[in-house]
Design a protein that fits this description.
single chain, 5 helices, globular, two-stranded antiparallel ribbon, alpha/beta, 8 strands
Length: 186
């Protein structure tokens, strides 16, 4: 049976991560591996409590270094998961503020489990960013209903990433003016 393993790295993103974790487990992944890096908010305690609800479907990995080495941490965890996974399993690396919404309305696990659905070695999807109003209280679930506007990239420059970062830092570009790269499952 094909399984989807999710992997997310969380740092100081509570309670938004609460929603993302539940959404991923309800709609897309069979098992979610949450790497929680040292946080001053309720992230670690919150994921521990969610573990009590989701049981074996949720694995907590505590990262006890202050250095935010996202790429290295995720790459290490991906290698560890790949070594333990069945060759037919899939891996979905998601951000702690990411919600997979399939245009077809069919969850990823059902798409891949469908006949011929797991024949690919990779599935790509487009990232859409949504803009929260300035008065959005991320600790109040009702506030998320105010998020209604999608960011529309309007700058398609072929500039190197460090130049784009400088322009964002100087206030000449907005992070959401730029298109985001597609993401994928593999």
């Amino acid at each position: 049976m094909v399984r989807i393993h999710g992997l997310t790295l969380i740092r100081e993103e509570w309670p938004l991560a609460l929603i993302a974790i539940n959404h991923a487990l309800l709609h897309h992944v069979d098992h979610l591996h949450c790497a929680v890096q040292v946080s001053s908010d309720a992230t670690l305690e919150g994921v521990q409590r969610l573990k009590g609800h989701w049981g074996e479907r949720l694995t907590l990995v505590e990262i006890r270094t202050d250095a935010y080495l996202q790429e290295a941490i995720v790459a290490t965890l991906v290698r560890q998961l790949a070594a333990l996974a069945d060759p037919s399993d899939w891996l979905y690396v998601l951000d702690a503020d990411e919600f997979g919404v399939c245009p077809s309305g069919v969850p990823l696990r059902e798409q891949i489990a469908a006949p011929g659905g797991s024949d690919d070695s990779e599935r790509r999807y487009q990232v859409w960013n949504w803009i929260a109003p300035v008065d959005c209280d991320d600790r109040d679930l009702a506030s998320y209903a105010q998020v209604r506007h999608r960011a529309r990239p309007c700058v398609f420059l072929g500039l190197p990433p460090h130049i784009l970062a400088e322009e964002i830092g100087r206030g000449f570009l907005n992070y959401f003016d730029l298109p985001f790269y597609d993401k994928g499952l593999f």
